[in-house]
């Protein structure tokens, strides 16, 4: 892959050519998510109980009450009342939470391994929170306690009326005793009014402390997130995305040469032409033997390169043979005298191997060649890891045949150096490309339309010949 931007077509090619591998990785990711749900995130259920706070509350006061609802005092009392085996107050502390919502409501959440326990935990926490708050304010949760302040208020009002009657019946300022009595009555009235104000303030505080649990917590019907299905789907998606990113990263790091000028420069020679080889639709398939490992590679599709272009449809057999004959003609014109040459093919390059065999066949059957120049090509396969070319004997030169996009510049330089060590001059390079073949036609008698097309448009496909 070049340094161009990654397009959707590239990702589509990965999905199309490696779908079996991606499917297996997605299944492995789902199993990984399942294992994570069992070991790290077991099944959990969350229930919520609501507590209503009557009166006027500021936002900071509601936040304070939410913290009180999950305080150690409330949790310890709830743990003691539940008395779950093996579960202490410290364990419950991590399983409960509280938050303030609109309408002066504190919502208490309890999480447990079963719906029944989650419901019990939420209910007990709400009850203990209300009881603890009532204990802090000194109030009583009994509704009958409201009759005390109301009765006292009625008595104060009756006393005020009695004071007014006594003040009216007293001597209206004629004697000193009458004035003193009226003054004392007014002071008593002021004291009662002040006491009533304090009573109203105390009632307001008491009304705030009168919290009410808004019914039992509903039993949860579904797991708390992350659920097991969510973890399995997430694992499958994670492995799938990681596999696609890995393919793209490997393609970015790929330094295989793809263009004919780059290949010729790496071998320090010139390009003699390009030839077409009928091949598979999905690119080059590596040689892997017949063992279980090779079967697995074939099943997953990793023995086929995904980053090679889709083979284009080429001309017929006659047009492909014309390309080989043109390469042979250029090779004869390049040599000063007829001599035998080695056709060097990188080991494992199946497309290049088939092209080299076809080139040898065309050189032996070319009617334009002389009898001395026929059969002057011999194919040898060379390993790219440790290249070794036979020493110069009957052959006195090398012709390299390879496919584009399969080898790096370092590997091709190694082949060129191996040819030099064997005292073989690299006379040229031929680049082979896989194409989709059309129905064959006779090479000796090409149709008139094919001949006209070659004469007018030049080469059918694949660049210059």
TrEMBL record:
Coiled coil: none annotated. Residues 4-75 form the Polysaccharide chain length determinant N-terminal domain. InterPro entries: Bact_polysacc_biosynth/exp, LPS_length_determ_N. Pfam families: Wzz. It comes from the Bacteria. Belongs to the CpsC/CapA family. This is Wzz/FepE/Etk N-terminal domain-containing protein. It comes from Streptomyces atriruber.
